[in-house]
Design brief:
The protein has 9 helices and 7 strands, in the order αββααβααβαβαβαβα. By secondary structure, the chain is of the alpha/beta class. It has one domain: Glycerol-3-phosphate (1)-acyltransferase (3-Layer(aba) Sandwich). Strands 1-7-6-2-5-3-4 form a 7-stranded mixed sheet, with helices on both faces. Helix 1 packs across helix 2.
Length: 202
């Protein structure tokens, strides 16, 4: 059943969002990657995931908050279909950190979609990045970190709406970055944030 549902829902997500994808300075690859993007809509993770080529999509897990995606039967089902990696922000412990959980789940094969701002940003201006991306890069320096700018999804799925409003949106994926030797957390997060903003203007 799930094998049938996934391609149908992936196609539906792309149709409703009108999403087009641009690969700028990079190509779709099945190597392990962390796709990190701006965050303005609950649709961000699913539309980005659905817009990846099938062979990449099958290896990629969106990371999202458990309190939203477990808040009703439809959302719980969608989280299962899209293989969402759910993080419980209320139960973060030193011995069970989200970073360790993510790395444990992806192993040596899978990729992730993450949103370094944390919560959705409805102001129209991208917020500062939290430290999670830095710790992922530090613990797994081999992973390609792919900056992604998602444009217009906040209008496709406005706050408080249950169903999306059909509009055109664009997803721009840029060349990978890595944590540089001697680079501080603050320096890296600022550079990563700028790499996402660069995709907006590319």
């Amino acid at each position: 059943m799930k094998q049938v549902t996934v391609p149908v829902l992936a196609a539906l997500a792309k149709v409703l969002s009108g999403a087009t994808v641009r690969w700028i300075g990079c190509e779709p690859e099945t190597c392990q990657r962390i796709y990190f993007a701006n965050h303005t809509s609950h649709l961000d993770a699913l539309v980005l995931w659905a817009s990846l080529p099938k062979n990449i999509r099958n290896l990629t897990r969106p990371v999202a908050a458990v309190d939203y995606w477990q808040s009703g039967p439809v959302r719980r089902y969608m989280a299962t279909v899209f293989n969402v990696l759910l993080i419980d922000r209320k139960k973060i412990k030193v011995h069970n950190s989200p970073i360790d959980m993510m790395l444990r789940e992806i192993g040596d094969v899978n990729s992730l979609i993450v949103f370094p701002e944390g919560s959705r940003n409805l102001s129209g201006k991208m917020g500062e990045f939290k430290s999670g991306l830095f710790h992922l890069a530090k613990k797994r320096p081999d992973l390609e970190l792919m900056p992604v700018y998602i444009d217009n999804l906040n209008r496709v799925m406005p706050k408080g709406e249950f169903l999306p409003v059909p509009l055109l949106s664009c997803i721009s994926i840029g060349a990978p970055i890595w944590l540089e030797s001697g680079e501080s957390k603050a320096e890296f997060l600022q550079r990563a944030r700028k790499s996402v903003l660069k995709m907006k203007d590319s």
